[in-house]
Design a protein that fits this description.
Blueprint lengths: L7 E7 L3 H12 L6 E7 L6 H6 L6 E5 L8 H10 L4 E4 L5 E2 L3 H12 L3 E9 L7 E4 L18 E4 L19 H11 L4 E11 L8 H4 L3 H12 L3 H15 L11 H5 L3 H10 L17 H22 E7 L12 E7 L4 E6 L10 E3 L5 E12 L2 E7 L7 E10 L4 E13 L11 E9 L6
Parallel strand pairs: 1-2, 1-4, 2-3, 6-9
Antiparallel strand pairs: 4-8, 5-9, 6-7, 6-8, 10-11, 10-13, 12-18, 13-17, 14-15, 14-17, 14-18, 16-17
Length: 451
Amino acid sequence: MSQLEPLVCVIVATYNWSSVLRYALASVKNQTIADFEVFVIGDGCTDDSAAVVESLHDPRFHWKNLPQNSGHQSAPNNAGLALARGEWIAYLGHDDLWMPNHLEVLLRAAQAERSDVVFSLAMVIGAPGCGGRRVFGAFAQDEYVRGAHLPPSALLHRRRLTKQPNPWPDYQSTSGSPETELLTRFYDDGARFTGVREVTVFKFPSSWRPMSYVHRSCAEQAAFFERMQREPDFLLRELTDATVAQELLLPHTTVAPPSQDDELQPGATIARFRHNRGLSAKIPEVGAAQFIPNKRMAQLIRELSREEMRRKQASRFTHFEIFYAHKGQYGGTGAHTRVLVPLGRWRRLRIRLEAASEGAPLRIDPCDEPALIEIAWLALRGDEGVVWSLRGEALARLRLAGDAVRLSSGRALRLQSVGDDPIIILPEGTETHPQLCLDCWIRINRDDPPG
């Protein structure tokens, strides 16, 4: 090892995938700056990864193998940091590729902005046969958002940020990803972040490729690396493909991504990734190819879904409310109960009272819009049976208020709501308390009355 400190220390964590490691290291060797040192850290490798490093015949590349597999890049990265020298740290996934100007672009931005953490855009390639593309590392005004994910392969940071022992957290104690927790720690400690709006990384997520650590194919990386060397317009072609893929919403993978619940359970996200890669006892489930939205798009989809649900509810349901008087007044501090009632058909409602109505009778607001309302039976029922009830012509004893207009009484009370606040008042002296439930046969229809 040279006695002179390099400008950049590159850490490459790897596990038993020597065929793909070869292309990752070649993309480091092809960098436009040469002042770097590389530590390739095996996570308990048992294949010929060491021979791949030795075959480079480059004294800047060093090999170290951990005694046992830890299951995530955190342990190899910590081992690399313990050996690192120089001012800057960069990471490269063993199945990712750097553009030749990657380190040059990040270092130039770091020096211009006096930054502590610099990141570029990473083009994320969908699984074979899917055609999807994503770009990671994009933020408004290129300003990093606390808690956001950045691929380690797109990251450069000052070594002094990781001088404490084992700065990369154990994935089994981390909710979400360890790299996000590391970046959050940098952010909270006041590190200055700078984003570079330039694609310098190509990422091939092994978690999007079912059984990737079983098949250990390097065909994608070999093809991309060869095109990087041969095609002067390689990056332009890939940016065009990414634009088309995003416009067409082409899928990214055939395996399920981690759920929101996985993000909350320590270790669950990485455990799911390991399962998808074929590193667990069970074979990952493979289904139809699916598009994986970014967080902003996923949020918009959820908001649109909720809005569509509200729209459907508004078209098929109305709100039925019970108001309990408090000191003779409705509303204010008085309690009320609200349920959804389907429109257009007879429905029996059984609603447990939440309070007694004090100083005034129980009040019912059967809907919140203009509608025809028909009531065939209204009762209060306790554990021992019915304690009060009205049916047929006796329903005429109910007092109407608000927007309610009585149409007729007979087998059912028919009334019209001419606005959004029809009110039905139970007779004075009707007993109410929380041990009772309101029992009602009712039909509410927006349209003309049924024939």
